[in-house]
Amino acid sequence: MSNSTVKPASGKLGVLVVGLGAVTSTFMTGVLMARKGLSKPVGAMTQYDKIRVGRGADKKYLKYSEIVPMADLNDIVFGAWDVYPANAYQSAIYAEVLQEKDINPVKDELEQIVPMKAAFDKDYAKRLDGSNVMENKSRWEMTEQIREDIRNFKKEKGVERVVVLWAASTEVYVPIDMKYHGTLADLEAAMKADDKEHVAPSMCYAYAALSEGAPFIMGAPNTTVDIPAMWELSEKTHMPISGKDFKTGQTLVKSGFAPIIGTRCLGLNGWFSTNILGNRDGLVLDEPANFRTKEVSKLSTLESILVAEEQPDLYGANCGGAEKGGHQGYYHKVRINYYPPRNDSKEGWDNIDIFGWMGYPMQIKINFLCRDSILAAPLCLDLVLLSDLAARAGRHGIQRFLSFFLKSPMHDYTKNEVPVNHLFKQYTMLKNAIREMGGYEADEEID
């Protein structure tokens, strides 16, 4: 180990997840199976990736845990909240992501993960109808109850630290309104006034987690921690926050492929993305108000990688797309279609219209037949372990180095900060943060 100043990962790490659906049950099952040596945590950077540290004769490639003190898989203790009362085993069977033979070896442990009552408001997810919810509680009372749940979990399970992860459905879009979201005092006033329009249930979870000294991760595109009030709270409590929306399928492809077009200085006329999926996520997103939240997060990726102002001939008003379509710059459209037969096997179609030398058109088609929860589970593990690491390293506020794992990276829009969506720039930020926490110098930049 280098001269790292990060506090050691002593004791147990509590992982409290909001939502015990397909993603969470797949995540939990995989971790428990990996602990028994019965499966491999494929896709988890924290378990496989190696980072170069040092130069010349001192050059070494080390796993994250060899650079900084990381929590071990054996130290994780799971808990959850969900609107449905099913335990993690029942949930994993119901989700039909994993085969029964891959769930049964850890059946006993999964059955012990029984969800606590969810802070839920049907107006925020009209398609969900569960009975395991907090009854007749105001937003402030919900928050107090979640705080109590966290304290009880720590006590009962004997965990040293807790990380709270949102892996529940996408909520109805809550536009940022500085009157309610601008300062911590404004947000607290809205919560105490039971302002259901401006305070989403997810905000209660984030507020409670940060107040109880737990990092908070937003795995959906909800507005939750993307407001100055929450940034203020995370600075006040010295806790890291990250979000938003797990970058699993189509956006991963987009953030990795768009740089190819940009680096080769090819032009873009249009990018049409469509998805079909049939799990509970798809059901919720079939509601237009919930899809709006997702659309905002998915649309922002491309525009910060292929920037019209920087290359007007390729992406701006002068590009081929503008002339033919009568609009400014390339045309970008995102669609999500609920299609029950697919269940958790999501299909992402990307149809990309590019142009090259002398403006001649070409096309690229990408068809990604992915499994949503299989891609999301390792992201959950990485985000949890790296958020816990950040907290022990004394990092608080927005954790930009975690944008690699997230679809719509948090950024300070009040200061006109542009989020980094370019996958390889995000990877550099991730590696350098780990190097720095490990006491090594940051020595790679893609800019």
UniProtKB/TrEMBL annotation:
Keywords: Membrane, Transmembrane, Transmembrane helix. The keyword Chaperone does not apply. Coiled coil: none annotated. The chain crosses the membrane at residues 13-34. Signal peptide: none annotated. The keyword Transmembrane applies. InterPro entries: Myo-inos-1-P_Synthase (IPR002587), Myo-inos-1-P_Synthase_GAPDH (IPR013021), NAD(P)-bd_dom_sf (IPR036291). It comes from the Bacteria. GO terms for biological process: inositol biosynthetic process; phospholipid biosynthetic process. GO terms for molecular function: inositol-3-phosphate synthase activity. Residues 249-373 form the Myo-inositol-1-phosphate synthase GAPDH-like domain. Belongs to the myo-inositol 1-phosphate synthase family. This is Inositol-3-phosphate synthase.
